[in-house]
Amino acid sequence: MVEVQRYPFGQHAFNDLRDNAFATSNWPLVYVLSDEKHLRAYIGETTDTLTRMSTHLKHDEKRLLTAVHLITSEYFNKSATLDVESMLIKYMAADGKYTLLNGNLGLADHNYYQRDELYEEVFREVWNRLIAKGVVSRTLDHLDNSDIFKYSPYKSLSFDQRQGLLTILHELTNPDVQNILVEGGAGTGKSVLAIFLFKLLTSEDHQISLREFSDEEAEIKSLLASLRQTLPNPKMALVVPMTSFRTTLKKAFKHVSGLSPNMVISPSELTKQHYDIVLVDESHRLRKRKNLGAYFGSFDKACEALGMDKHTCSEVDWVCKQANKAIFFYDESQSIKPSDADVDVFQRLKSAKSSATHRLLSQFRVKAGQPYVEFVDNLLNGRIDDDEVFTAKNYEFEVFDSLSDMVQTIHEKEEQVGLSRLIAGYSWPWASKKDAEAYDIVIGDVRLRWNSTNTDWINKTGSHKEVGCIHTTQGYDLNYAGIIFGEEIRYDPESQSIVIEQDNYHDRTGRQGIKDPAELQHYIINIYRTIMLRGIRGTFLYACDDALREYLKQHIPVHNVGQIQPEENNVVELEPYVNSVPLFDLQAAAGEFGTLNDVSDLDPDKHEEWVAVPEGVRVHKDMFACQVIGESMNRVIPNGALCLFRTDLGGSRSGKTVLVECIDSVDADSGSRYTVKVYESFKTEDEYGWRHQRIQLKPNSYDNDFQPIELSDHQDQQYRVVGEFICLIEQSQ
User: Fold this and answer.
1) From CA 138, how far away is CA 358, in angstroms rounded?
2) Which of 392, 420, 492, 714 is deepest in the core (most CB within 10 A)?
3) Cα(100)–Cα(255) distance, integer angstroms
């Protein structure tokens, strides 16, 4: 369905490009320009390849790129190539090999004939061909679960988000407006809009690639041009109050041209300089001077630096003082602690003459949509009819009678799709913080520990075995969330209402100073509402209080307890480790190859077989080649293909294709002691540090009969990762 061909990029390469029938016949295609030395890339699509390449050679940045990969298919039409280009930008940014030179995408995804039926599979083949060529390394399934993908600036916007973008740009050009509030519930895409906008405002004119499919895009270009006249190079920052989520967004900014992790800052860092434009994501978590714990000192120091009264101001005031224009992304319902700035502060801000407000309404995190959001709100606030039961065909929503069953279900979902986590109300002390052997949550025969880190816990290896709290999950997306309603929340059948047991609520900074029980109930209800809106595919519930569990069961379904020759090229002479690498016969390697710890130790004069590497690949002494036999990886590696590998360097291998030595067995597919598979690792931590709890070696084949190889803790000693797949050298004929 798809072909990917590599050419040098430069004036001298046009004769080679003219030999490509797609490039010379005005056929729509997609291309990737790249540079292996500086690891920069640009992705585009065109129907006039030669003219487009000539244009790129005149561009200050793109002309420095050294290779072009043409992605061609007889199935391509203009709509399809625009779609493939868009998807490639999103996924290659998340893959992280290259820093992309691309600007923002078009505002909206566009539908076209057979998009779902045919072109989803076409794109998967495009991606697999790019893995084979060494352009990308991680699988689509792996990237789908990464926060770097979820919070990439290369996202298309919903109708609501596009209207919000237009509102913000209009107000940024309005000299009478200083503060802009974008309101929206959990899952309405506030973070995506904030990051898209940040990238748009920091891009130079030539980097903005909105395609003018609509009047909206033409209007945005006009507004940006107007803004450039007053702010040609705006000094900007993205403020994120929560440490964990701030760490995640810094990662998302790392591999995007024009963005830097340093642009994502904490509220206290506002004291360092004044900004033209400040965006604040999760602004409902900006703080005031109450229940700050260890942060009291930093808060007071910042107030002093800004000349503000520490007793009357909040971090909202810091933003307003340090920004000529401030954009707050806000959800009143996600204020979950007494230290959060008062709702009144935002109400006054909204009512000020120098402020403008826009509201996002569409829910697109949770597949059950807005009806689910409204149901959760009514359920937790006792506004639900006695006979109402919520179900959705595309959403798994169940209440469990057994916590053990829910924990097991979350573990199964983690194995199947990843990003499945347990979350609980803060109704147990954090004993394991001081004693790593202690259990925090003990219910029947279930023993669990709180999150072992506050920073980026969602993405920590083994976190599905722990329990997160609101502070480590707010702002994140999950595939499945298993919610434990703790001992601080119960249901009173007589009053038919949810009530709070203050003595069982152990978030010290979340309850100190609260004298009105209704205020504490407001925060705790907001906590459960927020964590119930984390799961994209499903949400599972267990309640410690029997009466609350029965109440949930009235309205939620109850859970009921699978040797080839080197590629011909123009190289006259093979020079070891200059343009060639050693070739090994894995079928005959028995023990020799397996005991070779570093192929860079190989004496070129004594090794007989060498193979030329593909043009454009930078050769290292730890590279080698071998033939891969079998059909278990045929989506990327055809049977009999000659492949380039690099000696395993350790580090994260998850989602990558690796060559593994089977110490005590023979792979049934290849007939040798070596197998090539996609590596996934599931780790756990004990007193001796991190160790593999389970390793999965997954096939990537059109034949669904191939099953993953599951390695338990004791079995992983029987397998050794020898190398990481770089690219194909030659396919079998």
Assistant:
1) 38
2) 420
3) 7
- Residues 6 or more apart whose CB falls under 8 angstroms from that of 26 comprise 47, 48
What pLDDT does residue 364 have? 65
Lowest mean pLDDT among 5-14, 22-31, 171-180: 5-14
Closest Cα partner for 70 from 97, 34, 99?
Answer: 34
Cα–Cα distance for residue pair 458/469, rounded to 1 Å? 11
Element (H, E) at 421: strand 420-424
Closest CA to 35 of 11, 12, 67, 71: 67
* Token output for 426: 């803060």
Between strands 275-280 and 264-265, the pairing is: unpaired
Q: What is the pLDDT of residue 716?
A: 59
Q: Is the separation of the CB atoms in 22 and 29 below 8 Å? A: yes
Domains and CATH numbers, the chain: 2-139 (no CATH), 159-359 (3.40.50.300), 370-555 (3.40.50), 580-729 (2.10.109.10)
With tokens 């989803």, the residue in question is: 120
How far apart, in whole angstroms, are the C-alpha atoms of residue 252 and residue 259?
Answer: 9
pLDDT at 205: 66
Burial string for 66-86 (b: 16+ CB within 10 Å, else e) reads bbbbbbbbeebbebbbbbbbb
pLDDT of residue 571: 45
pLDDT for residue 690: 57
For the cut 50, the answer to whether the pLDDT of residue 593 exceeds it is: no
Residue 195 contacts by C-beta under 8 Å, 6 or more apart in sequence?
151, 152, 153, 155, 238, 249, 252
Phi, psi of 488 (to 5 degrees): -90, -5
Residues β-bridged to residue 689: 686
From the list 37, 66, 31, the residue with the least C-alpha distance to 50 is 31
What beta strand segments (E) does 177-235 contain? 179-183
Q: Are β-strands 420-424 and 467-468 bridged in parallel, bridged antiparallel, or unpaired?
A: parallel
d(C-alpha 708, C-alpha 720), whole Å: 16
Calpha distance 350→115 (Å, rounded): 42
Query: What are the residues facing 581 on neighbouring strands?
Result: 611
More confident position, 377 or 153: 377
